[in-house]
Amino acid sequence: VPSACEEELLSCCGVSFSGDLPNPSGCRPVPHALVLDFNDPFSTEVKPRILLMGLRRSGKSSIQKVVFHKMSPNETLFLESTNKICREDVSNSSFVNFQIWDFPGQIDFFDPTFDYEMIFRGTGALIFVIDSQDDYMEALARLHLTVTRAYKVNPDINFEIFIHKVDGLSDDHKIETQRDIHQRANDDLADAGLEKIHLSFYLTSIYDHSIFEAFSKVVQKLIPQLPTLENLLNIFISNSGIEKAFLFDVVSKIYIATDSTPVDMQTYELCCDMIDVVIDISCIYGLKDDGTGTPYDKESMAIIKLNNTTVLYLKEVTKFLALVCFVREESFERKGLIDYNFHCFRKAIQEVFEVRMKVVRSRKHQSHARKDKRPTANGTSRLPL
């Protein structure tokens, strides 16, 4: 469970939770009527949904708690099995802005009384979690049924398969399990004549950073500005002598963009550790004597020199985002040039934010206008007076 300071940071960055944080099993049940209220196309464009699905005890709720609630992986051992649909809004910024729906493993949303079409129609990504340490034949059957039904309703859904709990497997067993699940899942689709459905597979565990990296890849697919952000990062590093740069959401440690060079897992882990250090130190020493203030603000920055002649450089971009760079010591001697280029980069990011917010406001205005024009019971339109 986050400390009081960390909880304040989560709150000020706009993360809203289902239930109270100290209660690990606290979930806000979603009424059946609310589940079916997906008729507004503009709302789904503004805030896409991510569905967490899978069999019981596959680790869905643990993933959600670790990534978005800063819960310790060991504490997830005491989580109760989810028995209601839980919804969580993640609204850290204009880029990280979506809803997560956690579906209990035992729920049969293909029951005739359950309108599953309305659920899939507004979904951006469907994450199906498979327990790699269990017999996954039943999970594969459920995966096939879910994917085929969802694709018929919404062909634009991104299907993401988390092969979870791989921390208990050897490296050879991990590779073999991924190959077997990948082969069987795609063979089932081919037999059904649905080869055009693309499934993405990830090896994940809550005991390392693999779950954060996998969620990063999922979220990036839901960010329409991703090509612009990647291009800005490429320009920034090429003109600053930087080897690698990540644009991080400081709350969840999801990186929403990086440059075009390959991502190394160890590099990503170092970035996550650096963000933890900055936030923890700021929570202890960065607040005023009366405890007021924000642990992460526009003055936040950090420099860490590693023992391999590499420098880690963190700078605040917005109150939600941080830029973490890997720089050689000889290149970091031109820190003034890096800071000037960073100033230009941050200005460009703010312009992208402004464009995004204009689009959001325009869509909300159109949505309200459409609702106002709906006919009332006596047949007249609901036009504003």
TrEMBL record:
Residues 364-373 have a biased composition (Basic residues). Residues 364-385 are annotated as: Disordered. Keywords: Cytoplasm, GTP-binding, Hydrolase, Lysosome, Membrane, Nucleotide-binding, Nucleus. It comes from the Eukaryota. Gene3D superfamilies: 3.30.450.190, P-loop containing nucleotide triphosphate hydrolases (3.40.50.300). The keyword RNA-binding does not apply. GO terms for molecular function: GDP binding; GTP binding; GTPase activity; GTPase binding; molecular adaptor activity; protein heterodimerization activity. It catalyses: GTP + H2O = GDP + phosphate + H(+). One of its GO terms (cellular component) is cytosol. It is found in: Cytoplasm; Lysosome; Lysosome membrane; Nucleus. GO terms for biological process: cellular response to amino acid starvation; cellular response to amino acid stimulus; negative regulation of autophagy; positive regulation of TORC1 signaling. Guanine nucleotide-binding protein that plays a crucial role in the cellular response to amino acid availability through regulation of the mTORC1 signaling cascade. Belongs to the GTR/RAG GTP-binding protein family. This is Ras-related GTP-binding protein. The lineage of its organism: Eukaryota, Metazoa, Chordata, Craniata, Vertebrata. The gene is RRAGD.
